[in-house]
Amino acid sequence: MKFSQKQIAINGLLINYYVREGKFPALIFLHGWRSESSVWFSSLENFDAENSIYCLDLPGFGKSELPREPYGVENYSDIVSGFITKLGLEKVVIIGHSFGGRVTIKLASKQPGFLRGIILVDSAGFIDRTLSNKLKRIIAKPLRPIFKLKPLHGIRKSIYRLIGSGDYVATPLLRETYLKVIGEDLSEDMKRINIPTMIIWGAQDKDTPVKWAHNMINIIKNSKLVILKGAGHFSFLDKKEEFSKSLAGFLSEL
Length: 254
Description:
Layout lengths: L3 E7 L2 E8 L2 E8 L20 E6 L16 H15 L4 E6 L1 H11 L5 E7 L9 H16 L9 H7 L3 H5 L4 H8 L4 H5 L5 E6 L7 H10 L3 E6 L6 H4 L1 H13 L2
Parallel strand pairs: 3-4, 3-5, 5-6, 6-7, 7-8
Antiparallel strand pairs: 1-2, 2-4
């Protein structure tokens, strides 16, 4: 499958994307945190549907510009909405993985007329209230001012990794954005979604646990769940053929 690389200005930011022109409904793929649009390419190699396909680099990732201020999920959803509107796309299906799923949920909750359906792939959307996550937050916050002391500069990253805050360390220019994003529970947004929704999940996902998939299907109306056995958090890469079949099946029912 051949894609053309393009860029477009949305809300003052230069957004990079890849497109294969085709028929409606247009498919828009949103990547996860610390990822980029090209992550979808290999899973689409054998997807032979004639739909238009767009893969976006969300602000701060891939070849898109960094936000000029800390972004929340709402800001990212506005970027995607602006992209769809500016290109004049109709009957859109958004496929969002992990963090991209958060953005998809937020956008779908606004019930825009251009959305035909959504697919949430190992999606984030709930606040991780486990003890380990609470400890990360408790430990990380007091450490930040302490790290201003010069003798501790060299061990800062080692300590963050030790407490499991790898995402925080790996995206230093998006740290405040990261904290805003993970601190938002989208349960109420899920309740407002009223378009066809497919939830695809890896049975061995350790980043967004399968129990979240079952929570989502109980909250989101008109949704159905597909569990991919043997797949982890990147289920669309672990089980490419099964993912493509699920995607094609969903589109055939719209």
